Structure formats: structure tokens, C-alpha cells
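Give me C-alpha cells for this 360-residue protein.
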Amino acid sequence: MASRPRSTEPYQAVAWHDGRLRLLDQTRLPGALVYLEINTLAAATEAITSMRVCGAPAIGIAAAYALALVAQHDRSNNPAALIDALHTASRTLAATRPTAVNLRWALDRVLACAERAAHTDGVEAARSAALAEARAIQAEQIAADARMAQAGAALIAPGSTLLTHCNAGPLATTSAGTALGAVIPAHRARRVIEVLVNETRPRLQGARLTAWELGWHGAPYRVIADSAAASLMAAGLVSAVVVGADRIAVNGDTANKIDTYALAALARFHALPLYVVAPLSTIDAGTPSGAAIPIEQRDATELLVLAGITLTPPGARALNPAFDITPVALITAIVTERGVLRPPYAASIAEAPAPAPAAR
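Here you go.
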């Protein structure tokens, strides 16, 4: 059984605490540090859907603990009935955020462990196995973060000004983070002059979350409008772009927060490297290319209303895809816990020990 995970950060996005799922409510940041004690499937589903927890790894860990929560609370004495309840809960959780593959991957792992234990040792063993596997997933992510941070920081040249998009720090993984996990040790090694933080419309994860995390770690940063990236690159004020990922296809096409594709194209035009930092669990062995990645469409209100103020005329409509696909040709390197993957990605990804594809 895996040991109880311990984050290296003074705050933790996801944890198992006193028999409950504990989440740091990211919708309340940066104004307040509020932890939610989640004790029901409905509350966990709402928290994931409403982005109280963000970041593909953190979403996967939260979903794994939510499934363990269902197992703890289900009073079935029949192993088959318990497993049926877990399958139903898994389908509910999987539907919350369809693009991030870590969600389905983590659910499948917990389900598989619970099913094996139920088959061999009964209901109580299945409950214990579900929680143990959720804890193992988090412990593995914490270890992966540390390795990605080391590998990613090594790519950052001394004197760099880095541009980030969305949030890929400790809040996104429950530990050091992915993209920001590489940036922070590079900052500590005095290789980073400044981090330019895209505000990341429409939910402002960069302005609210990345800026808050960089400030916590004492890293110099400035928030910029998403639309400022091109002119700043042209002026020579950006050294590299560092982002996370929500799903990576086996050919290297990468789904990440909307506008990542535009940044990648701009970086290529200005001869700047674009580094994707993500754990191997983000590589989906069942997705051949970006064309097969489902793109989550979110509520139009996120674009039309800001902090309770309506920004548009009455009756205005909006199109609000949460992610876009960055073509493999625009990616300089993919940093994983097993090292840095380079082109051709179909070959380097195939050689990496990526997890099995999530069930469909």
C-alpha cells in the first residue's frame, strides 16, 4: 500500500482528510484560502464541473478520491452491488470534464483495483483497495512532479523571460506542478528574470491562480493580456513559452487551455521554443491524434459575465470552447517524469512507458 501522500507545498489542492475529500476552492482565489470538505458524490461532481479544482492531474486525483468516497459510503454487503455503484459513480464523474484524460485514467485505476479486491476478498477489501489506489495515484503524481521539475528547469536558459498560459502550478497537481513546477526551480537557480503570465480568459486562471502561486514562491512576474503575447515576442521580451497539457495524443498533438495553439504558432513564427510539461498519465494511448480529442464546451456565461457584471448587450450569444489543440509540429519538447521527449514524437512517445488507454 502506498504511504499517505505529503505535498511539498504549503497549500494543497486535493487531499484525503478525516474520511473526506478536501479541496482548496480555486474559485475563491486569490481573495481567500478556503478549503471544502466533500462528503458526497454530488458535491464532488459539482466541484469538478464548476472548476473548484483545476488542472488535469488534480482533477484526476479528486475524482479518484471521490470514487473512494462512494465506496466508503455505500452500504452494500454484496460485492457485485458495490462494483455496480462504483461504475455508476465513475460514469457521472467522467462526464464532468471530457477533455482531461487524467480524469478517466484515474477512475479506471480505482475501479480496477476495487473490482479485483471485491472478486477475491469481498466488500470491505474493495473499499480499502479503492482508497489505497486513490492515495497511490496522488503519491505517484507528487513523485512525478519532482522529476518533471528537475527535467524542465534544465531546459530553461539563464537570463530567461518566460511566458505561461493558464495555471500549471501546485494547484493543478497537488504538489510542485507541471509547467510552473519547472519554472519555480529555474527561478530559484537564478535563471529566470521574469515570468509573463497570460491572464487566460475567460476564467482568468493566469491572473488569479498562476500570479498567486508565483507570488507565494517569490518569483518575479507580470500579468499580461492574452492579446499582448504577439507584440511582446516581436519586441524580444520572451525567451520561451512553458505550458501544461490536459491530453496528449500518441502523435504528440496536445490539448491545453484555449489560446495555447495561438501561442504555439506565435512562438514558432518568432523562433521561440514551446515546452509542454505533463506527466505520462496525460498521454492517451487510445487517442491517435488531436482530431480525436473531445473539446469541452463550457457555459456561455463565462464569456458574457465577469464578477457579476454583464459585459455584452442583451441577447448576446457566445462560443466558449475550454481547450484547443496544438499541432505536434509546433512543440519543441514534451517534459515528462521519465525525461524530455523530442521529435519525432510518435517514436519518443511510443518508447515512453505511457499508461494504458482509458476505457471508452
